[in-house]
Structure formats: C-alpha cells, structure tokens
TrEMBL record, chain A:
Presence of the UniProt keyword Signal in the record: yes
Signal peptide: 1-19
Name of the protein described by the UniProt record: DUF2271 domain-containing protein
Organism: Cellvibrio zantedeschiae
Species lineage: Bacteria, Pseudomonadati, Pseudomonadota, Gammaproteobacteria, Cellvibrionales
InterPro entries: DUF2271
Automatic annotation (TrEMBL), chain B:
InterPro entries, sorted: DUF4198
Keyword annotations from UniProtKB, A to Z: Signal
Highest classification ranks of the organism: Bacteria, Pseudomonadati, Pseudomonadota, Gammaproteobacteria, Cellvibrionales
Source organism (scientific name): Cellvibrio zantedeschiae
Region forming the signal peptide: 1-22
Protein name according to UniProt: ABC transporter permease
Domain of life: Bacteria
Length: 173, 274
C-alpha cells in the first residue's frame, strides 16, 4: 500500500520538476533554546518595478492555523515586512498558500507557471523574500533576486544568519 | 448648554497648563498595527521631556475621542488617571484605521497695564470663562493680544489593512492630513503630510520629529522641518521605531475678539521595516 502511494506521488510530482516554474527550499534551522516555538514564515515575490507595475505575490505562509478561533492569526503581523507588503490585505486561511508552522528541517515548495497560487508570472525582475519570526525569538528576512523567465535551469542560494537557514531557488524554463 | 460651558472652561485650563509646562505631550499606543481579528490596545497620555519615558506630570485627562474605521465614534474603557500618566484602553473590532485623540481650544489674553505692568488672562491655574474676558481686561490696557489657542494630541492604530475614513480633518485648529498613511510609515522611505489650520493650509508651521528612546542617546537628535506654501512637509525617517512629531503654528488671522491664532499638534507614529 505504502509503495503504491509513493509511486503515485512520484508520478504526480515528476512532471512538476520539468514544468516552467519555481522550486524553493527553505531551511528552518534547529535552535538550541529553552523555550522553542516553531516559527511563523512567509514566502513571497515582489517585482522590482515601481508604481502601478509593482507586483507582490504571497506563495506560502506557515502559522499556528489550528489555534482556537483563529488565535494564531493575530501574530501574523509579526512577519512585519510581509504584513505591510501583502499580509494585511489577505483573509486567512488562504487556500493553497497558508498552512501550519513547520518543524526544523528543509522544506520544499514547488510553483508552476500558470497554476495557482503563482499564476502567470510576467517577464521581469523579481525578489524572492523569505521572512521568519519566532515567538520569544528573532525575525529575519532573506532576499533572493532573480529575473524571469529563464532560458535554462538556473539556481540561486542565499542564507540567513539566525532564524532562516539556506534558501534555494531553482528556476525551470 | 451647561455642558458646553464646562467643556470650554475645561479646555481653556488645558491650554493654559500645556503652555505652563515646557514638556511635550504625547499619546502612546501599545500597538499601531493589529492582526485582522483586532483586539485591545492600551494608551498612555502624558507629558515629559523624554520620549517615551514617564518622568513628567500627567495633564488632566480631557475627553479622549476615538474615530473608528467606519467614521463613527468608539468608546474608551478602563480609564486610569494618575500623577505620572493617564491610561485607557480601546477594543478595536473593525477592520481599518482608528484615530485616537484629545483636542481642545480656548481664548487667552495678555496686555500691558497703564503703569507698564504685564497682565494676563485667565490667571495661572484658573479656569477661563470667555464671558469674563471683557471685564478681565482693564479699559486702559495697551498692546492687548487675544489668542485663539488650539491643541491636539493624537495617534493612529490599524486593524488589518489601512483605511482613510477616520482621517478626515474637522477643519478646527491645527490638524494633520496624511498623504502617506500614518500606519504605513517605513524606514528609509519619506512620508508626506499636509497641515491645516482651521481647514486652510498651515504655511510655515514648525515641525519637530524625535525618535523614541531619547534617554539612551547623547543628544535628542530631533529633526526640524517647516511646511511649504501648501502646508506640506516631507519627513525622512532614519530607522525603525516609535517617533513623536510635534507641530506649532501661529498667525494673526483670528476671528474677533481674538487677535491671533495659535495651534499646537502632536502625534505618535511607528516607523516599521521597509
């Protein structure tokens, strides 16, 4: 049974690897602190254009989504930069975007050109942002600039120094 | 009618006390930005030399007003009046921007008596009754100056995304009309505001901006600005933090019996990461 599921998943996932889009991996570092709360995380894109052409798209938000009466939602504003850029305009939960906080480790995200939540990403210069804020801890933003579309598979890697580990961005043409 | 009189009496006392203390008045919110669910926000109103430390004296708590995002007024709760600070709380349940403020206005007068001494009204610490002005000033007074003084202290809190319905000016006294939304200020981005005096651009108003935490700095590090011919000013924030903005304006375009107008305004803003 397990094998069947694995196979099914592999079949489902494999075309994504080749479809035009973004593969993002976000490392939540393991922190040796007395009181650890899994961090709130926002992953979003911004175009570097100014004015009306400026474009912001939230790709993933991890927060305490199962707290009673949306209790976790009130801390979303602590993802301060994302909150100002897009978060305060959204209604939670956001289908296909928001989910529970993640444990320490490397988390994979995959977005396909033309499919929700990415939609069709217009040609242009962008910055991928990963913002992490932890209750009783710090806050950090990692930026990965890139140009879309790409002609051949292209990879970028940046790293935070405290709350965010490695962030990799793989672009598929 | 009685209420109106009391209000005027009280207001004039407030204006007099604000002038007497050289301290700056400020209204500090516990939060300027709340999640979409809203909640309680605590406020402290006091005056001091340092922002935002409680080492001055609390002015008498005048009526605090709250304009909710739907432009209706909202109730203030859990009022505490102390020696060092006045506090209250507001439950914010609507999406959008709340304006929380205290404002008042009144007449003050000063003159020189026939034998060259200085006279002023209302007497220090006394309540001013506008009806008494005529009898308070001696018939032979020289260089009589009657000032229509207004004062406003305010701050802004937004639940979810910022809105502008609560930000409309009343066209009375010195007021700030935001071009940049007051809950959308970011470090390294300039913010633009317009100042109005009784609804008209306050040209040449003096603006002072000080970052909080002055106790821990060697100098107050204030920034000074002046509004242009349209009453506009552009503030360049240097970093994130809570800021105090003070504005003052004076002219001689008052309605009788006043000979001059003066307006004082202060607001607390939070400047966030870009």
């Amino acid at each position: 049974m397990l094998k069947k599921i694995t196979l099914a998943c592999a079949l489902l996932l494999s075309p994504l690897t080749y479809a035009a889009g973004l593969q993002i991996s976000v490392e939540i570092p393991k922190l040796n602190v007395t009181e650890y709360h899994t961090p709130y995380t926002a992953v979003w894109l911004e175009s570097t254009a100014e004015g009306d052409k400026k474009f912001t798209k939230t790709l993933a938000v991890w927060y305490a989504d199962k707290k009673r009466e949306g209790g976790g939602e009130k801390w979303l504003k602590d993802l301060r930069q994302w909150w100002r850029r897009d978060g305060r305009n959204l209604t939670f939960p956001v289908d296909g975007v928001s989910g529970a906080t993640k444990l320490a480790g490397v988390h994979q995200l995959s977005f396909t050109q033309g499919a929700a939540p990415l939609g069709t990403l217009p040609k242009g210069d962008y910055v991928l942002f990963v913002e992490v804020a932890r209750e009783g801890g710090g806050r950090e933003v990692v930026r990965v600039p890139f140009t879309w579309p790409v002609e051949k598979p292209t990879s970028f890697k940046e790293s935070g120094s405290a709350e965010v580990g490695a962030v990799t961005l793989d672009l598929n043409p | 009618m009685k209420n109106i009189i009391q209000c005027v009496l009280f207001s004039s006392a407030m204006v007099a006390s604000a002038v007497a203390q050289a301290h700056s008045t400020w209204l500090l919110p516990s939060d300027t930005s709340k999640g979409n669910k809203g909640g309680w926000v605590a406020f402290d109103l006091t005056s001091s030399e340092e922002f935002f430390t409680f080492n001055g004296g609390a002015p008498k708590l005048g009526p605090i007003q709250v304009i909710a995002p739907d432009a209706n007024t909202t109730e203030v709760q859990n009022i505490f009046e102390g020696k060092v600070r006045n506090s209250f709380e507001v439950e914010m349940t609507q999406q959008g921007t709340y304006k929380v403020f205290n404002t008042n206005s009144g007449l003050t007068a000063r003159w020189e008596t026939a034998d060259g001494k200085r006279g002023f009204w209302p007497p220090r610490g006394a309540k001013a009754d506008p009806a008494e002005l005529a009898t308070a000033v001696p018939k032979d007074a020289k260089n009589l100056e009657v000032t229509q003084a207004s004062r406003r202290v305010e701050t802004f809190v937004t639940v979810g995304a910022p809105t502008r319905e609560s930000l409309k000016p009343t066209n009375q006294g010195l007021e700030l009309v935001p071009v940049t939304h007051p809950n959308d200020l970011a470090a390294s981005e300039a913010s633009e505001f317009i100042f109005l005096m009784d609804g008209k651009p306050a040209v040449g108003a003096k603006i002072e901006v000080v970052e909080g935490g002055s106790r821990y700095r060697l100098s107050p590090a204030e920034q000074n600005y002046e509004t242009d011919k349209n009453g506009r000013v552009k503030i360049q924030w240097k970093k994130t933090g809570m800021y105090w903005l003070g504005a003052s304006y004076k002219d001689n375009k008052a309605a009788k019996p006043a000979t001059g107008r003066s307006g004082s305004y202060s607001a607390t803003f939070e400047v966030l990461a870009e």
